[in-house]
Amino acid sequence: MLRSRIVGTDAEVARVAEDAATKRRGRVAVRFIIALPVEATPEQRVELTRAFAEALTHGTASYVGAIHDKKGNDRSNPHFHLVAFDAFEKSGGRGRPRSVMGMARKGAVEAAAALWARIHNERMTAWGYGASSLISELSNEARGIDRIPTIHEGPGARQMAARGAVPAAKPAWRRIDAGQTRSAANKIICEINQLKEEETHGNQPDGLGSRDDRDPHERREGRPVCGSDRGRGRADARPAAPPFVADGRPDEGADEGRVPPFRTAGADPDGPSSPPFRQPEQAPPPRLWLLLSVSSVLSAAVASAVCLLS
Question: Which residue among 87, 134, 137, 308 is least packed, with the fewest CB closer than 10 Å?
């Protein structure tokens, strides 16, 4: 537990903050839940958490932070919870005191995300971790990645899915999951992304311009099942990291689940070949049209998630 500039018990601090927020008609506190690098040591995670909290509060506002990385799912999904109580400073002129953190200002959430990415990358680089440990606060679209982002599920939802239980629908979240369970929505998103990748590469799994006339379902044989590689911190997995570094360049070796750059088993070695450039566009497989029918709904739902959760 990290505490800074907190006077009194947590209950007393919460009561004072709520009274002050009621008087000025503002927010009581700001809460963050941020993923920590699984490859970092416990001491390094503490340093990352404290560095972000101090930078966010400008060394003035008070905060309470808790790191979860010791038990159950937290060991493979380390993260921290941060509750920051804003402070207000008078500018010397007329008008209301100015917020120290400024989380009500335009672009504040994006600025906080950029702050975390900068602190994270500076520390991880200084500690000698490779480029695969770097993160970016930018969206897939901003980095030029044509992929639909998956939706956060949480350990509880995954345990229910493993038991075959279906969680109760929440109408308030329809804009995020389109009325599907998170697990079902992510399976659809994953398959859409795989099919889009196949179409983008012109059905050329060997990357050398040769054709692959197999049925789309045959081409997907041997590939990881959608959602099967989402676990973090496994002994047989490399450190979890996004497949792109902060400047948007692909990180070599990050896409481990893709077909290797040579002819795969089952392909006809004597089949017709063509020059090593992109093949003429072909009609997408029928299943792609079916999946893309929900793609726009899920894309709009994910895009609005930030508005709901912030």
Answer: 308
94-98 long-range contacts, CB within 8 A, separation 24+: 96/24
Cα 252 from chain centre: 20
Q: What is the pLDDT of residues 65-108, one digit of tens each?
A: 999 999 888 888 899 999 998 888 777 777 777 888 888 889 99
Handedness of CA 236, 233, 38, 116 (dihedral sign): positive
Neighbours of 297 (CB within 10 A): 17
Q: What is the pTM of this model?
A: 0.59
| Rounded Cα–Cα distance for residues 187 and 142 (Å) | 24
Is residue 138 included in any domain, yes or no? no
CATH label of the domain that carries residue 75 = 3.30.930.30
The domain tally of the chain equals 2
